[in-house]
Structure formats: structure tokens, C-alpha cells
Amino acid sequence: MFLKLFQRGKTGEASDLESNEESDDERQGSEKRLKGSAAFSKSHDPGGPGSGKGTQCANIVKHFGYSHFSAGDLLRAERDSGSENGTMIKNMIKKGEIVPSEVTIKLLQRAMEEDGNDKFLIDGFPRNEENRAAFESVTEIEPEFVLFFDCPEEEMEKRVLNRNQNRDDDNIETIRNRFKVYMESSLPVIEYYNSKGKVHKIDAAKPIDQVFEAVKEVFSSHEDRMSTRNCASISRSPICGNETVAA
After folding, report:
1. Within a domain: residue 111?
2. Which residue segment(s) compose the domain that 20 sits in?
3. How far apart are CA 71 and CA 243, in angstroms?
4. Residues at the annotated binding site for a ribonucleoside 5'-phosphate?
5. Would residue 67 count as lying in a domain?
6. What does the subunit comment say (predicted)?
């Protein structure tokens, strides 16, 4: 699982779910609403399944006051809303197709705009490099730092199998397929941020309390530094948490 801390660009804009066109007043209002921290977490891509993202995301929300949004939950809610976008999402999911990045991004933007907080933990997005590039291009939010929850595949596999959540995807075959998808799709996102010196690796094989102590050290140092700045955002990977966050 990985978490990313973002700072929103000064010229960033938020767009309406139904249209990319905004009046000056609407655009300024969107910028004002989203000014501050924006976090996004991935529970599907970076950070393997069973790496402890759900638990750590809950701790981050409680300890640091972030609002948590799940990309999957937002897509399902829109799917069931009866809207035009909802029908499109329903048909794509039924066909096993991936919902376009711009649709998920707009849902996340709307959720952040409607929330009273200025710090957001986004779960289940981005899942790959295309998601990442689209998110940063549309929102003009760039990561301040990335938390990568490093956990051996054998340990993650054991944790997932022992969760006893009665999930259809918690069998050995689908679990190993998720690891494969993670390596092929999500790991490149982590490598991209690592090349920019923004990745903090956390040993997620340790007990939960010890893992969160390491998380708090990273967050505390960045929150202290960012208290003198406008905004911050945290993101995590979908596969890490419950997601997660992903984070």
C-alpha cells in the first residue's frame, strides 16, 4: 500500500461531474472548496493486498483528521443513482471494462467539494500510471510524499486468507492474480514517485502498532513542515487498506 501527500497547485481547477465547463465564479468556488489537503488512496494498485492498508487508513483518519473517500464506493453509488453516468458505469462494470479515469476523477472531485474538510484520504485510486497522470493533470495536485507499505508476498497472502471475510476474491488463485496486477500496474506508480525522491518505505510486516508509529513519524514531520504552507493532501494505494486506503 502506498500513501501520497499532495499539495494542490495554485491554478488547479475542479470540474463538475456532468460538464467540464464552468463559469469564473464556479471555478473560483471549486478552487476555494478544494484548497487545502487532498489525499488519495489506492486499494487496488500500489501496495499489495493484505499489506494492512485498511487498518492504517483508519488510524490516519482518526489521528490526523482526514476525510476518507473510496473510489469504488463512489462508483457504486453513482452506478445505483440512476443518472446517465450511473448507467454508463453499470454497463461497463457488467462487461468487465475499466471505467474511464476522468469519470472516477470527477466523482472524487465532487465528493471533496461537498465535504467540509480540507484533507482527504482517497482509496482505490489511482491504480496505474494512466490514472496517476490523469489525476495530476486534471486536479493539478502533485504528491508531497508517498508512503509505501512494504510487505512480503507470503505474509500478505497469509493475512488475506486468514481474514475470513467470506469475500469471493479471497481465494488463493484470485489473491495471486491481484499480486500480479499490482506488480504490473501499481508498482510502476511507486517507482515513478521513488525516482523523484518522494517515497518513504514502511515495514508493514511488523505489528500494527509499530507500523503506525512509523507512519506517524513521517506524517508528523510533514505536517509540521506544511503547517506553514497552504495545503497538503495524502493518498494511499488501493491494495493496502480496506481500502485503504490504499492510501
Report:
1. yes
2. 2-236
3. 9
4. 76, 97-99, 124-127, 167, 178
5. yes
6. Monomer.
